[in-house]
Amino acid sequence: MTEITDIFFDLDHTLWDFDKNSALSFKKIFKEKQLKLDLDEFLKVYEPINLEYWRLYRDDKIAKEELRYKRLKTTFDKLNYEVEDELINQIAEDYINYLPLFNHLLDGAIDLLEYLKEKYKLHIITNGFEEVQKLKLEKSQIHSYFDVVVTSESVGVKKPNPRVFEFALNKANVTANKAIMIGDSLEADVLGALAVGITPIHLFNSMCNVDERVTSVQSLLEIKQYL
């Protein structure tokens, strides 16, 4: 990887601890809205439902507004907990507002960024919502590490669509053979990067599928071995 000059990161589940920050956001909402529902039980049901709706959103099968409402509605229905639509919509809005206010990063994130910034130009490519992702970067105080931040909303398509990666490469003024993409999603980050000639590094957990063709790590600090 001696020819590499630029590294692109995914944000959620890669640098920014989405699960922890999401749980804290819901904890705040449950308290404010006085929801008589166990938070851990809710999250156990909500998290896989959220992932499935994100897949639908990524594949352009639902709109942003549907994602925000339906992931909550489906979870409450599955838990047999009655919530009026008006309250669901309010929770959806509060969640988006509160989420970027929590700023926990995955273990090793700052250490890795400090290590890499001396050797490479660093960038972000994320499928998250424009207004939310920029706040996450600012509130977690990592925005200064990145030269280019590309959101799917700013491009008009989502990872793994090649246009997102091509847009990011052009904006960063780098060719694919000199870039690396680091992300947690096999479909969006790894296969998306491979499709345009970017070398991927897959940050995986026990719930991920692993592609034997690519470098895979279980922690951010393992990446130092390759860069």
From TrEMBL:
Keyword Hydrolase: yes
GO molecular function, one term: 5'-nucleotidase activity
UniProt keyword annotations, A-Z: Hydrolase
Keyword Cytoplasm set for record: no
Stretches of the chain forming a coiled coil according to its record: none
Domain of life, per lineage: Bacteria
Pfam families: Hydrolase
NCBIfam families tied to this protein: HAD-SF-IA-v1, YjjG_YfnB
Name of the protein: Putative hydrolase of the HAD superfamily
UniProt source species: Tenacibaculum skagerrakense
